[in-house]
Structures are given as C-alpha cells and as structure tokens.
Amino acid sequence: MALFIHRRTRHLRQVLGAIRKYRPSRFFVFADGWQRGNGKEEQECRRARRLVEQSVKWPCQISLHFSSQNKGLKTSVEQGLAHVFRRVSEAIVLEDDCVASPAFFSFCEENLKKHRRDSMIMSISGSCFVELGVPIPGRAYLSRYPHCWGWATWARAWRRYRGAISPGALRKILDRQRFPKPEHEYWSRVAGQLAGKKMSSWAYFWLWAHWSHGGRALSPAVNLVRNIGFDSTARHTRELAKPLVVRMGNPSLAFQGSVLPIPESENLDRSVFRNHYRRMAGRRGWREKITDRLRLLLPGWTRGGG
User: Fold this and answer.
1) For the chain, how many structural domains are there in total?
2) What's the confidence (pLDDT) of residue 300?
3) pLDDT tens digits, residue range 71-82?
C-alpha cells in the first residue's frame, strides 16, 4: 500500500493506527517537503516523518521517500504512484487525514483481486456520498465518480492517468458523458479551471481519466473511510467541514448483496453529484441547507463516515 503524508502528525497518528492493524506486507510512504524558510512547517514535517519511522514495527518491506523540497500534493501523488506502479501491479492508497476501517482494506483486497482483468473498472473507492434517502440495494455500485478519501487501483489503470489535458480534449471528454444541464455546467467550470491552471488537483485529472476511457469506480454502499482533515491545518478542505463531516456507518454492509450494474447506478451518481460535488462548490439550495441542519440535530441521520 502507499501512504502520502506531509506535516499533520496528530491526524497521521490515527491513520497509522488503522494501518498498523492491517499490517501491509509492502508499504510505500511518500512525505512532501516543507516550504523553504518556513521553520515551523519544517519541524512539523520532520515530526511526521519520525512518527512513521517509529510506528512501523510489524514485519514488512517498507520504502520511505522523504522529499527535500515542497512539491505540492498533485506532484507528490503523481510521482509517488509512478514509482509504486513500476514495482507492484496494484496498491491501496491513503493520505494522512483518512482513517480507514478494517472493512476498507478487506473491500479493496477482495475487489483488487476480483477485477484485475476488468479494464472497465479503473479504481475502488472507500467512500460513499449517496444521499441517505436514496436506497442502494447492492453491496456496491459502479460509479463514474472515483473518490480519493481512501482508494485502490492497478498499474494498468494508473497508466491512463494524465496530469495535464488540453482544453479541447477536456471539453470533448465532458460532452461524451451526456450529463444533465446542471451537472454539465458544473463540470464545464471545473474543466475551465483545470485548463486555465487555476486548480491543481490530481484527483480531478484522475476522474477525467476514468471518463476518457469509459472507466468506472467501484464504490461501497457505506463509507469505509473517515476523513478527519477538516480543520485549520488543512490546505484544501478546511471550508468543507460543515456540509461533509458525517460519522461512520456499518462497515459490514459493504459485504452484503451484489454489485449494481451501470444502468441502475446512474441515479446514485445523480445523488452523489447533489450531495457531494455541488456542496463542495458551495451551491446548496434550501433543501440541502435543511438537510445539513437535520444532520446537526440528529447525528444518527446519516449514511456513513468520511
């Protein structure tokens, strides 16, 4: 498995606690560097690196990659996974603010093995962002949306990743998705930000890789990963805490029932768009605001954690 870290030691301790229970036999750790001249960040980064070195006490083949410069998350992930997939054919991937349940590792292992030769399935997600009121009759579903809060993939799929795509190609790939108007407008704005380099996100380019090749992500029926990174230490997610923080669901649900075919998953993707992507953009109507209020008043009223 591969773990990407930076400077958040408090979060990393919980992440490593979950990984310690899983005890991967091969463990790649990539630590991004600190910004030059930032003494506080340097201390935090060094503490995070020491924590990894002190925490890995189970028998495993560990490969530590501690960068001497600040690359940023996009470059760190791109270069790190290129390194990983030159050496192994499949991997589970976590970042230093994503605490995985035991069921997450089992879900990934089972499906990495089961779908190794299925070129349509490009990744396995640990998150479920389907709205609570929308039923998921299967154990998992095939989604056009790969999620990066704990995931897994194969070298054969990551070879399709491109960290830069021309504006024209972005538009053509998007048009082939035949989204309803609100979703097309949203993703058109994202495409414009990617093309104009106003957004630096490997995750969106990974999503576009799925779309470009007609790929799907296998998503569980409940959240199997808890994102603990919504706080003042975050660089990308500090403003998302109120609409997205939810508690863990029942991980055993991920192993009940069958995988829904693509036609039956389209309604679930519509729900994911409403419940996740539109919220991330801050485009919430009165229904979403009421839903958020109910989540605060009724903590149990939620599908899962993440």
Assistant:
1) 2
2) 37
3) 999 999 999 999
Say if residue 89 is in the same domain as residue 23. yes
By the 8 A CB rule, do 75 and 83 touch?
no
State the pLDDT at residue 198: 82
Amino acid 242: pLDDT: 39
**Domain membership of residue 63 as a residue range:** 1-96
Same-domain pairing of 222 and 133: yes
Q: Are residues 236 and 90 in the same domain?
A: no
What confidence category does residue 137 fall into, taking pLDDT thresholds of 50, 70 and 90?
A: confident
Distance CA 103, CA 267 (A): 25
Q: What is the DSSP string of 10-71?
A: HHHHHHHHHHHHH--SEEEEEE--PPTT-HHHHHHHHHHHHHHHHH--SS-EEEEEE-SS--
Cross-strand partners of 124? 152, 218
Q: What is the CA radius of gyration of the chain?
A: 19
* Residue, of 21 and 247, whose pLDDT is higher: 21
195-200: Cβ within 8 A, 24+ apart: 195/165, 195/166, 195/167, 195/170, 200/72, 200/73, 200/74
- Reported as half-sphere exposure (CB side, CA atoms, 13 A), residue 42 has a value of 7
**pTM of the predicted model, to two decimals?**
0.85
